[in-house]
Amino acid sequence: MTDTMTKPAPINHWLGGKLTPGTSGRSAKVFNPATGEVQGLVDLASTQEIDAAVQAATAAARSWRTVPLSRRAEIMFRFRALLDARRDDLARILTREHGKVHADALGEIARGIENVDFACGIPNLLKGGYSEGVSTGVDVYSIQQPLGVVAGITPFNFPAMVPLWMIANALACGNAFILKPSEKDPSASLFIAELLQQAGLPDGVFTVIHGDKEAVDALLEHPDIAAVSFVGSTPIARYIYQKGTEHGKRVQALGGAKNHMLVLPDADVNMAADAAVSAAYGSAGERCMAISVVLAVGDVGDGLVDAIASRLPALKVGPGSDAANEMGPLISREHRDRVAGYIGSAADQGATVVVDGRAQTFDGNGFFLGVSLLDHVTPDMDAYRDEIFGPVLCVVRVPTYEAGLKLINDNEFGNGTAIFTRDGGAARQFQFDCQVGMVGINVPIPVPVAYYSFGGWKASLFGDTHMYGPDGIKFYTRTKVITSRWPDPATSRVDLGFPQNR
């Protein structure tokens, strides 16, 4: 009886509007990061299962694309209401499988709901253009049509928000959507699937299929998938983009980041310190928009480092189930150990470890690591060069604005950046000079609202469009231009010349 009670729960696929056990015979462990315990076994799809899922989605897409825009909008409105009503339930799933604290989980869900808000306006978003009388009796107009079956491959760090970046627009545009969530925290996607069904989405239009590299490759190679959206690390984003485009797909692949915050000598030090702490350690640093490097210009460095360090002892780190905690564990034991390794290597390479997260102890076997602050970091150190993706903040001292800007622009990544200053001219010059896709002015995490689009530059983005917002509508549709003429038949004649508009 005890063995039965403690056996990890199966986590199945969502196919045809219902939970469907996998047939591959393969599965992966899903941990509770706060305890280190295995709490689920997620099915891992085979190539054959992916093919069956795509065939079902293809059939569903044929009828879904004919559903009127008003009806699609109605479903999106109902879905939005259900998400709003069930925020706490979804947040508890995020805390259980990802480890983030409840307040952080609620924040993630709120940003995801913004994207559903945007998609509710699909009748307006899909309006085309019309030109009457471009030539005698000739009118030209454009329409936007869905692609068919599209897929999303999403990361572990935002198991609700990032899928909603993709799902809302893709479905509202008339596509069928196949989601391959991270196998580390897959249950949020199944919860979303149930809400979509309750909102009235026809069965088969939304599919969740779990898997590893075999499933990813099958999605990228399948001839009936028209487009793939991805968020994750840069090496995998590059792979997704190359393999997907090789197989004729439209691909948007968002990669990694090394986000810098440039603090000028005239900045409000307390405001900058608050922002640095919030942006570096929120979500345990496991977000592509985290500030991982503070560039302290001139003599602001000593005061800024002291101000940041003074705030760290008050941060409460522990299980996300405790509302008093502000930061939870990392996603896995292996990742925690990897992040901790950067603290040691930075010290070995000459950095000053102002606060060492390894020194903080925690009860139990959870994947916890305290917050760390490294000063006098230089660009040749591993902690600077690599995307750590954990609660480690590096401070680099630079003599001038120009020196700080050069570090930002020379970095291989170009996801997000921020400047803290009281000088409007300097801020305006910074937004012009920096080679980064998302810029904050006295805003440490400049994630765009849902009616703009999210995405970086350089090695942070592969593809021509950013995620969600107007670019999301563009990505999930293709434009068709119609030229029509209804002339008097008596005026018809043969003309072998190139069409004229006069």
What are the salient characteristics of this protein?
6-stranded mixed β-sheet; 17 helices; 38% helix; globular; 502 residues; alpha/beta; 7-stranded mixed β-sheet
Characterize the structure shown.
The protein is α/β, with parallel strands linked by helices and 502 residues long. It contains 17 helices and 23 strands. It has helices at residues 2-6, 47-64, 69-85, 87-97, 102-119, 122-125, 161-172, 187-199, 213-221, 234-246, 269-281, 301-311, 333-348, 382-385, 401-410, 424-433, 469-475, and strands spanning 9-11, 13-15, 18-20, 27-32, 37-43, 130-135, 138-146, 149-153, 176-180, 206-208, 227-231, 250-254, 259-263, 291-297, 352-355, 372-375, 392-398, 413-414, 416-420, 438-441, 457-458, 461-462, 477-485. It has a 7-stranded mixed sheet with strand order 15-16-17-14-13-19-20, with helices on both faces. Strand 4 (27-32) and strand 5 form a beta hairpin. Helix 3 runs antiparallel to helix 5 (102-119). The longest helix has 18 residues, at 47-64. The model has no long low-confidence stretch (mean pLDDT 96). Residues 23-482 form the Aldehyde dehydrogenase domain. Keywords: NAD, Oxidoreductase. This is methylmalonate-semialdehyde dehydrogenase (CoA acylating). Its EC number is 1.2.1.27. Pfam families: Aldedh.
